């Protein structure tokens, strides 16, 4: 799929580095819970730690934590 960006996007993304488009697209899909963290990192062309670092750098958090998962974890710990 070829993507033609509006010039306004290029002006914003260009100072952020050569793979900023891939990173922000992958991060958006991850934040929308459409793909996993691992898939997003792969799509962004980054390893696990680099993707986590970039998420923290641009979004103030490295992971999206779903309340349901946290509650399941709490329940699991309580039953140990």
Explain what this protein looks like in three dimensions.
The chain contains five helices and no strands. The chain is mostly helical and 80 residues long. The chain has one domain (7-78). Helix 2 (20-31) runs antiparallel to helix 3 (37-44) and helix 3 packs across helix 4. The longest helix has 12 residues, at 20-31. The radius of gyration is 16 Å and the shape is elongated. The N and C termini lie far apart (49 Å).
Task: Tell me the overall shape.
Answer: elongated
Structural class: mainly alpha
Estimated share of beta-strand residues: under 5%
**Average pLDDT number:** 83
Q: How many structural domains?
A: 1
In DSSP terms (H or I, runs of 4 or more residues), the helix count works out at: 5
> What is the count of β-strands?
0
Largest beta sheet, briefly? Answer: none
What Rg is obtained from the alpha carbons, in whole angstroms? 16 Å
Q: Span between N and C termini?
A: 49 Å
Order of helices and strands: HHHHH
Q: Which key features would you list for this structure?
A:
0% strand; mainly alpha; elongated; 5 helices; 80 residues
């Amino acid at each position: 799929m070829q993507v033609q960006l509006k010039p306004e996007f290029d002006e914003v993304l260009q100072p952020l580095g050569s793979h900023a488009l891939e990173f922000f697209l992958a991060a958006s899909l991850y934040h929308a819970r459409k793909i996993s963290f691992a898939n997003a990192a792969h799509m962004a062309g980054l390893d696990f730690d680099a993707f986590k670092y970039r998420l923290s750098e641009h979004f103030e958090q490295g992971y999206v934590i779903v309340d349901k998962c946290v509650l399941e974890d709490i329940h699991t710990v309580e039953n140990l």
